Amino acid sequence: MPRASWNGAVIAESTAFESVEGNVYFPPAAVRRENLRDSSTTTVCPWKGTAHYYDVVVGDQVNRDAAWYYPEPKPAAANIKDHVAFWRGVKVDG
Questions:
Q1: Which of 12, 1, 16 minimizes the C-alpha distance to 68?
Q2: What is the DSSP letter of 26?
Q3: Neighbour-count burial for 27-46, b at 16+ CB within 10 Å, e otherwise
Q4: Where do the domains of the chain lie?
Q5: For domain 3-93, which CATH number applies: 3.30.230.30, 2.40.160.20, 3.30.230.10, 2.170.150.40?
Q6: Global pTM?
Q7: What is the pLDDT of residues 42-64, one digit of tens each?
Q8: Which of 16, 23, 49, 70 could be disulfide-bonded to 74 (CB atoms 3.0-4.6 Å)?
């Protein structure tokens, strides 16, 4: 089962997920929202659309823009709508 963790905390885990371009996208219900904080950062992917970011927070430690999601993906990426992926030191196993 894929699991995302950072600083000793499990941020997301689920047997249901999407894999796109080597990234695991966790469904919204599998993510511990208490470890995410909205970020104003966005980026644009030509085929997925505009990604929005979260800071990952564990205790008083903050990993800025370490998670992203597509709230309104383009049709080719509809399967990852609102799913969350991680990077910047967040370890995804499984």
A1: 12
A2: B
A3: beebbeeebbeebeeeeeee
A4: 3-93
A5: 2.170.150.40
A6: 0.96
A7: 999 999 999 999 999 999 999 99
A8: 49
Distance from C-alpha of 2 to C-alpha of 49, rounded to nearest angstrom? 25
- For the chain, first and last CA: distance in Å? 5
Query: Distance between CA 79 and CA 73 in Å, rounded?
Result: 9
Provide φ and ψ at 51, rounded to 5°: -90, 140
Token pair recorded at residue 17: 């997920």
**Which residue has tokens 């800071």?**
55
Confidence of residue 35 (pLDDT cuts 50, 70, 90): very high
Contact 92, 11 (CB under 8 A): no
